[in-house]
Amino acid sequence: PLRYLCKLRNLVKNEAEKNKSQWKTMGPAKVAVPSPNDFLQKRSKEPKLAPKKKEEDGKKLLPLSVPPRTYQPVTRIKKNFINKNAVAVMTGEPKKPRHFCVDTRQGDKYLLEPSGLFPKYIRKKNYGVLPKYVIRRNEEMKREEEEYQASVLEQLKKKAMKALSEEERTNVLKALKKNWEEINHAYQGLPIVTDTSYKRLQKEELELKLKQLEHDIAAIEKHKCVYIANM
């Protein structure tokens, strides 16, 4: 029998030729040929240094013999590391000893703190809570302070200031002025010449009394409300 031929054979062949490129497996149709002038020269791939700068006007600049003003010489200080380490050991804080627990004859040990055998008070239930005796003492101190303040207020009320009435103020002012007139009359009757110590003392005493009375009269006349303490 004849070989089987597919009916879509020509269609598949056309599709394959249509989608195939000419240089799919053989490379591009035209390749750029390098120019014969760009041939590889000897030592062309070695690294090259930067070109030197030309000297100005053909004159070579001499190095400066005097250092600039901003020059700071490097001073090397010799350190005595033995003394430095000794001072650090003497002034440093000593290492705190660590608690260990030895459980065998051979000396096997382990840290005691993370084992749970070392007590930690911050994990207690009553940590940071005020004890009962402290609360009781604070209450007693507060009660004593309140009693003391109450007694002070009571004493202040007993020694409260009393305001003078207008009639009493007028009477006191009249009495002061009358007393001033009497002392002034006695002062005017003193002799002009004070040749003895008795006369001089008497004159000074009367002057002090007059000054005090004048001060009291001026204070009462200046203030309309006058308070006196109940002793």
TrEMBL record:
Which key words tag this protein in UniProt? Cell projection, Coiled coil, Cytoplasm, Cytoskeleton
Q: Which PROSITE patterns match?
A: ENKURIN
GO cellular component, alphabetical, reads: acrosomal vesicle; axonemal microtubule
Q: Where is the Enkurin domain?
A: 136-228
Region Disordered: which residues?
Answer: 16-63
Molecular function as annotated in GO: calmodulin binding
| UniProt xrefs under Pfam families | Enkurin
Coiled-coil blocks: 138-170
Q: State its location(s).
A: Cell projection, Cilium; Cytoplasm, Cytoskeleton
State where composition is biased (Basic and acidic residues). 40-60
Under the heading InterPro entries, the entry gives:
Enkurin_dom, Enkurin_domain-protein
Full protein name: ENKUR protein
Q: Which organism is it from?
A: Prunella himalayana
